[in-house]
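mind reviewing this fold:
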Amino acid sequence: MSISTETLIARKEIMKGRVLHVTLDTVSINGGERTATREAVWHHGACAVLPIRDDGKIIFVRQYRYATGVAMLEIPAGKIERDGEAPELCAARELEEEAGVTGEITPLGFIYTSPGFCNEKLYLYVAQNLKKGSQHLDDDEFLNIEVYTPQEVETMIERNEIVDAKTLAAFAKARKYLTFR
């Protein structure tokens, strides 16, 4: 069977929260040839920033992630605060909030985090020419800042020590900005 299109027939609201919205949708496939049920998660989107210091080292944050039950090494990131917020403003805000730095932000593109069931679009950036800013975490946010060379990052990826998808994608997309020695 070739690629199909799907059109919404009916929607049942399952949950509407601060971060995401969950629906159970009935869709028609290929103009009504068939119908199917889709569970979908709707999200405003997010941004992630790979901050590169002047010495070529990358700034990471390590924070506990409840859903996985582990503290993960990631690049600074956060959700777009409201529908329509410019992704580059979100990226700049999260860079300073989490890493305590500001800088020149360059877009790397975007990824869909889990397109099988979620529409979250995550915009990726690289930040350079960093300047000290003011770290100001959310009340429920606790993290450690860690700094690594690109070579150390590659080793941690090979060892499965960095398993966060946005971090892996940003690192891959930012290769031309990185200095490997």
